[in-house]
Amino acid sequence: ENHFSEDLPLKGKKILITAGPTYEAIDPVRFIGNHSSGKMGYAIARTAAELGAEVILISGPTNLGLDHKSVELIRVTSTHEMFVAANSYFEDTDVFIGAAAVADYRPKFVADKKIKKSGDSLSLELTKTEDILASLGEMKRNQKLIGFALETNNEEENARKKLKRKNLDFIVLNSLQDKGAGFKSETNKISIIYPDKKKDFDLKPKKEVALDILNEIIELLNA
Ligand code: CTP
Ligand code: CA
């Protein structure tokens, strides 16, 4: 807290962020998940709070915590829980940032007892999860909506399709090309893609990447 707080660029803004992976239960002791650490989403949440925003961080299972008076941390496990939480806060928010690595499919049936080993193979039937960002894209009024994409091929084209399909204001494309970028690392290399332009950023610590992303959001809010 300092005496410049009145001048903080996100003062009075409400920012809703999803972070981390989601886990989809198979039985009482097993799940389908992914390697997302949550670091990028948590870095954005902390930095947004430091810039004066009121932040609600909806987090899937991670080892991280975030202790800041302007951050409310809501922990969820499954995509459905994340979807319900995101929907319940969306109307009252200025900016939504979907930084979570959301599962695309979940087991169609969750066994109520631990599945016993039997036979040489096992098939799991999967069914699609809710697309949180796409559904908020359909509901959005004045909110700014930001997504992430990690692509291994046709990066820009695929990211642009998501930008359009999910009705986003911009999408952050994570580059896999560079060593040190991505899921578990402390650094990230991004491009920010708008409907009509693209900005490329250098490989840098996630804290600084978070600031780059929030600076774009501040520009959008002031436009
Ligand atoms: N996302 C979401 N809900 C989902 C899947 C994705 O909110 N069920 C969000 C992510 O948080 C991310 C963006 O959508 O901000 C793009 O996620 P990504 O996995 O790249 O896109 P998908 O639409 O799932 O397409 P695909 O995995 O086939 O590339
Ligand atoms: Ca996906």
UniProtKB/TrEMBL annotation:
Residues 10-219 form the DNA/pantothenate metabolism flavoprotein C-terminal domain. CTP binds at residues 104, 114, 148, 162, 166. One of its GO terms (biological process) is pantothenate catabolic process. Residues 15-223 are annotated as: Phosphopantothenate--cysteine ligase. GO terms for cellular component: phosphopantothenoylcysteine decarboxylase complex. Binds 1 FMN per subunit. Keywords: Decarboxylase, Flavoprotein, FMN, Ligase, Lyase, Magnesium, Metal-binding, Multifunctional enzyme. Its EC number is 4.1.1.36, 6.3.2.5. One of its GO terms (molecular function) is phosphopantothenate--cysteine ligase activity. Pathway: Cofactor biosynthesis; coenzyme A biosynthesis; CoA from (R)-pantothenate: step 3/5; Cofactor biosynthesis; coenzyme A biosynthesis; CoA from (R)-pantothenate: step 2/5. The keyword Ligase applies. The keyword Magnesium applies. It catalyses: N-[(R)-4-phosphopantothenoyl]-L-cysteine + H(+) = (R)-4'-phosphopantetheine + CO2; (R)-4'-phosphopantothenate + L-cysteine + CTP = N-[(R)-4-phosphopantothenoyl]-L-cysteine + CMP + diphosphate + H(+). Its cofactor is Mg(2+); FMN. In the C-terminal section; belongs to the PPC synthetase family. Catalyzes two steps in the biosynthesis of coenzyme A. In the first step cysteine is conjugated to 4'-phosphopantothenate to form 4-phosphopantothenoylcysteine, in the latter compound is decarboxylated to form 4'-phosphopantotheine. This is Coenzyme A biosynthesis bifunctional protein CoaBC. It comes from Christiangramia salexigens. The chain holds residues 180 to 402 of 402 of the full protein.
